[in-house]
Amino acid sequence: MTWPDETPAGCPIPRSTDFAGVRFLGRCSDYDMGDTWYPSWADDGHLYSPWTDGQIGGAHCYSETKRTDPAETGQAILKGDDPLDLEIIHLGNEPASSLPYAGRYPAGSLVHNGIWYYGTYCLGPDASQQYEGRSYNWPVLGPVPGFRISRDLGRSWTPSPLSPERPLFPEPVDFLGPVKFGAPHFVDFGKNLEHSPDGKAYLVAHGTDGRTPNPRYADNSWISGDQIYLARVTPSEQTINDPSAWEFYSGTNSDQQASWSGRFCDAQPLVTWRQNMGCVTVTYNAPLQRYFMWVTDGWPTNKTMNSYLLESATLTGPWKLVTYLKSFGQQAYFLNFPSKFISPDGRQLWLAYSGNFWRGPEIRENPPGSHYGLVLQQVELLPI
Questions:
Q1: Where are the domains of the chain?
Q2: What are the pLDDT digits (tens) for 1-20?
Q3: I want to staple 182 with a disulfide (CB 3.0 to 4.6 A). Which of 115, 135, 141, 367 is the partner?
Q4: In this structure, what are the phi and psi dihedrals at residue 266, rounded to the nearest 5 degrees?
Q5: Are 297 and 305 in contact (CB under 8 A)?
Q6: Using CA atoms, how far apart are residues 262 and 257, in angstroms rounded to an integer?
Q7: Is the pLDDT confidence value at 127 over 60?
Q8: What DSSP string describes 54-76?
């Protein structure tokens, strides 16, 4: 079936002139395990991914300090070429302090030239609040405490030299203040970064500049925000945790070419749709020579969630809207297109996500198969 487009009125993002939507082909995986799956395609042909908040074969992992102290993040290898028949092997958990925050979750993960760079981000203390007559927890975004590094593909690790109190990027300025690079993820350039335009690794993230009039409560959360930001680095063990090695997208110059700055204060949003953005991933579709960006606005973080797909001929835009999937999942999050599973013509892909962590009766699986765990749905891009 083709998911109906229900783009809200006032969307500031122009429509795509090449793609009309997404058709679901009715083929879906049934992997029942934790969430936060962002596979990185290594040069050995396997996928390597972070994961958390669940179990694989009896091995548990939880990133919230209420469940385990210190917080833990897990890693796994996904072997096989058939998305419906993957062998998923747990490679262990790594503990790390989240203090003064309440959790430390998987973020940007990249395997390049046999080295695994595994990032995390923090979530703030939960505060019990009322919304539509019910009590909820509101996890507020915290900083990125850098990357741990593995030279043996996830069997052993060198911890990040950074910490929640001394993060990679100089934010937030005030505790629980606005964050731009929240829950960041590496752009998927294919096997071993093979399609990176310059050999660099690019990190895409969601957040806010704090300038939104009358912001929603928890607008700057793990799944909600106002803007998308972009940074890049030449990946190595020496640079990945060096703040001075990173560059930030800082808008366009007078020739409409992308500008980059080594100063975090110069970072400008790649896309802005205030009170309608959230967790973001980007994949380069090599056969079509297009970038595809998934964004999920999951505010207020534990009800139905809305996701939409953008496309662009260049990573720095301009970005255009393909389709808006209202209440997709109905609570799908962490959407991404693993580049390993793109068809030779680029038209068919497998959409990875997790779904329905909030198991109330008001949340149902739509499309079918949208369960909590690793979900892989085969989809087709529809031309105009």
A1: 19-383
A2: 999 999 999 999 999 999 99
A3: 141
A4: -90, -5
A5: yes
A6: 17
A7: no
A8: EEETTEEE--BTTTSSSEEEEEE
Name the DSSP class of 125: P
- Strand 247-252 and strand 348-355: the pairing is unpaired
Structure confidence by residue, pLDDT tens digits, 65-79: 877 788 999 999 999
pLDDT band at 126; cut points 50, 70, 90? low
**19-383 is classed CATH 2.115.10.20:** yes
24-40 burial: b if 16+ Cβ within 10 Å, else e: beeebbebebbbbbbbb
Which strands sit side by side in the sheet containing 40-41, from one edge to the other? 40-41, 47-51, 71-79, 87-96
Note the pLDDT tens digit of each residue in 149-187: 999 999 999 999 999 999 999 999 988 889 999 999 999
- Counting every residue written for the chain, the total comes to 384
Q: Which backbone phi and psi does 81 adopt, to 5 degrees?
A: -110, -10
Q: What is the number of alpha carbons within 13 Å of residue 340 lying toward its C-beta?
A: 23
Q: How far is CA 245 from CA 143, 168, 169, 186, 238, in A?
A: 18, 11, 11, 16, 9
Q: Which two tokens stand for residue 112?
A: 């390049």
Residue whose C-alpha is closest to residue 7's, from 290, 309, 301, 302:
309
Using CA atoms, how far residue 133 sits from 128, 129, 136, 139, 260, in Å, is 12, 10, 10, 19, 46
Q: Is 33 within 8 Å of 102 (Cβ atoms)?
A: no
Residues with Cβ within 8 Å of residue 301, at least 6 apart in sequence: 136, 137, 138, 139, 218, 221, 222, 223, 224
Residue 243 in 3-state DSSP? Answer: helix
Q: Give the CA count within 13 Å in the CB-facing half-sphere of 54.
A: 22
Which structure tokens are listed for 159? 């911890």
- Sign of the CA dihedral 211, 216, 217, 220? negative
What is the spatial distance between Cα 79 and Cα 86, in angstroms, rounded to a whole number? 6
153/84 Cα distance (integer angstroms): 23
Residue 281: closest CA among 361, 204, 355: 204
The 10 Å Cβ neighbour count of residue 14 is 10
